[in-house]
Amino acid sequence: MTNWLASINYITGKVGGIRKLILILMAALLGVTILLDVLVVEKIFDPLGYLYIALGTLAILYGIYPLYTSRRLVGYYWERASQNRLAVAGLAFILFLILLALIGPFFTTDPTATNFEEKNIPPLGFTIEESVYHPETQQSISKTITGSGKHPLGTDNKGRDLLAMIVSGARISLQVGLLATGIAVALGTLIGVTSAYLGGKIDNILMRFTDIMMTFPFFLLLVFIVFIFGPNLAFIVLVIGLTGWTGTARLVRSETLSLRTREFIMAAKALGASDSRIILAHLVPNVISLIIVIATLSIPGVILAEAGLSFIGLGDPSVTSWGMVLRAGQQNLDTAWWVAVAPGVMLFLTVLAFNFM
Q1: How do residues 36-64 score in pLDDT, each as one tens digit?
Q2: Which residues make Cβ contacts (< 8 Å) with residue 31, sequence separation at least 6?
């Protein structure tokens, strides 16, 4: 047992600490899993599953772990944040949204299941008058439709349960928001820190490339790429992530410029630390607070971008997102106003909650 622990300590010392060792092990595990997915018929994970694992590992190692080791500082910031009622309300709604996305599917029906006999049922507590064609009299008669507890938020013109679609949309919005923001923030952080630390020609090249990327209208670029390559949820996440990093790179670079001449960086250089170790072990952890703020403010924009793509018909047709429900609702505003109102309210509250934080 002692020899085994000594071996582990020796290995972690060689690779630069336990955090770097975990990164190497997770990268190797992902590589083996992807190889198995290529070689075997039955898939182990879908593309979004790999993104969850990779970004989750980075979040734990560079987000949760540093917070755990600085619990007094976390307590100080929480005490300050708890005095802001809007921030607490925003956090409470986001936690509610996460619970809705996680456990909601177990208590709702299939959001894609149609039942034309129950179409256009209003929400619970509402009543509408609908004209129905009577085959015997060959005339249209007025029929009163009352909301029921079976469909608390009502149904659309195909009889699909709106509550189930809202739950599905919450899951899709959180998936896209968290994963795409994670990709954009990780890429922007790496580019920003590297550019500021190395300086010179590398800084000029990376920043000029960033300037070029920032000249393209973000949403129009998304529409153009998705229109050419086709709507797929995993692809949409990648496109948003790979095109939305420019603001992060700029802000992180500015912060890193003030850090690279600090004493702890100079001491690491004097001790012979490599550039990669200084960037990953010293600079990135010291810009985490800025990264958290950037991510919190970026998630609403990403959610709205996905909803916008779905609303104009460029969303993944195999999933039920809030944008897709909005698209279906705006086509029947005169007969089923609630179909557009429910996802619109959820989008509004979600964006507001993240901005309050």
Answers
A1: 555 555 555 556 666 656 666 666 666 66
A2: none
Q: What is the CA radius of gyration of the chain?
A: 25
> Which residue from 109, 107, 110, 122 is spatially nearest to 156, judged by alpha carbons?
122
The answer to whether 144 and 297 have CB atoms below 8 angstroms apart is no
Range 150-189 burial, b when 16+ CB lie within 10 A, else e: ebebbbbbebbbbbbbbbbbbbbbbbbbbbbbbbbbbbbb
User: CA 208 to CA 89: how far, in whole Å?
Assistant: 40
Element (H, E) at 129: strand 127-134
| pLDDT tens-place string over residues 301-351 | 999 999 999 898 888 888 888 989 898 888 777 778 888 899 999 999 999
Q: What is the pLDDT of residue 313?
A: 86
Enumerate residues 6+ apart whose C-beta is below 8 A from 195. 202, 203, 206, 207, 249, 253, 256
Tokens of 14: 């060689």
Cα 304–307–308 angle (5° rounding)? 85
- Cβ neighbours, 10 Å, residue 339: 27
| pLDDT reading at 12 higher than 70 | no
The per-residue DSSP string of 290-355 comes to HHHHHHHHHHHHHHHHHHHHHHTT-S-TTS--HHHHHHHHHTTTTT-THHHHHHHHHHHHHHHHHH
Q: Outline where 199-319 has alpha helix (H).
A: 200-215, 218-229, 233-243, 246-259, 263-270, 275-277, 284-286, 288-311
Listed by start position, the domains of the chain span 1-81, 84-108+161-356, 124-152
What is the torsion angle, in degrees rounded to the nearest 10, for the CA atoms of residue 171, residue 242, residue 185 and residue 236? Answer: -10
pLDDT tens per residue, range 160-218: 889 999 998 898 888 888 889 988 998 999 999 999 888 889 999 999 999 988 888 88
Give Cβ neighbours of residue 142 (< 8 Å, ≥ 6 apart): 129, 130, 131, 132
For the chain, the average pLDDT equals: 79
Joined tokens for residue 168: 């599905």
d(CA 163, CA 159): 12
* Fold entry, domain 84-108+161-356: MetI-like fold (1.10.3720)
